[in-house]
Amino acid sequence: MKFENQPSYSLGQRGPNKDTLAGESGNVRLVSQSTLGEINRGRVLQALYDNGPKSRAELARLAGVNRTTITGIVQPMIEEGLLVEGDAVPSDFKGGKPARPIYFNPEAPMLGAVLLLPGRIQTCLVTLSGDIKALTKAQFDPHGDRGAFLAIIKDTLSATLSQAHQAPFGIGIASGGMIDSDNGVILAVNLAPVLTGLHLVDILQAHFSLPVVIDHHPRALLVGDRWFGPGRGQQNFAAIYTGEVLGGAFYIDGRVYRGLAGSGGELGHTVVQIDGELCNCGKHGCWETVAALPWLRREAARLGFANPESVTCARLVKEAAEGAEAANGLLDRYTRNVAFGILNLQQTLSLNSYVLHGDIAGGGADAAERVRQHVERLVKKRPNQEISITLNGIGEGHTALRGAAGLVLSSHLKLVI
Ligand SMILES: [Zn+2]
Fold first, then answer.
1. Where do the segments described as Disordered lie (predicted)?
2. How many angstroms does the Cα of residue 302 sit away from the middle of ligand 1?
3. Which residues have CB atoms below 5 A from the ion given as ligand 1?
4. Of 45, 180, 201, 405, which has the most beta carbons under 10 Å away?
């Protein structure tokens, strides 16, 4: 890993175009000395996220710079309380001096996080090493009054933030629906019209006097995977979420892919069935129409399952393991329908690594293995190409909250995502 002079990009900014240096209208900006300092800080913090606690000597080796340079970057972060030195541990090298590993200070300011889904709000504080504190939950009427919703989200966040020992670095929001992450606006939420058109970032920023960022819920899952989960240290992977809706997000060549104003990655609305069933979005044949909970429950009802409205992937896995043929068959079709979307992604982007979230992840290793086998059968692979399908084991809600916090890490601490 090299920590050299490379521009970092905040939410929504475009990636580098190496062939031009085009000034205001172009894609590349030169960086000032102070910006360079922030970037170097970000790179060191990122190395700690990717590798765990490391001594100055190890960080210098990872960065390909000398120890004096690393000390110049790390020491101010220790003095301001962001990082802390652990107890000395014996060196790996024969005759080497004991080294003191450096990692995040548990007393450092935390990150505020909000998960906003139709009818449900969760807020919490997240430590720099990813621990969740002061979790607070509330419900709201997705078809209700805008003022009532704002009162609920402000109260819920206040209850969480009041438990912080010092002001958090900022608040990150993971929201369902169509999000303009550049302008902090929730453009539309099919299942919660009360949120449609809401300038939530401006409102919360003014109310709490803290920096606020927002992104699409599946993209927050991806960020949670990247900083704190199975995406740690990876350069290419996608997160796939199934629930009442289907969503996903991409990490490509070491960057979160957002598309224009965060509009990229509407995976649920890629078409898998031309002229197929009507989707919530008003179009036909979207992936979401055959690989999310509403489809699963409709099929369960059609096949005569008891309590079809409570069918989940976890329930199908359990019943299939007990020998229920119908559950086994429906589970096979569900995992195959999920695999079809992954197949299209694999053929387009060749990411080779997919992390499952939500209902499909609730089916555990059994569901993941079925998805993997379907992808293996469907995809046109190159020789020796391995495709991994993994689960984020800590649960979708916590991953999204950690990911929401991760959005603040990248915007405030200049970590590169
Ligand atoms: Zn759709």
1. 1-25
2. 22
3. 269, 279, 281, 283, 286
4. 405
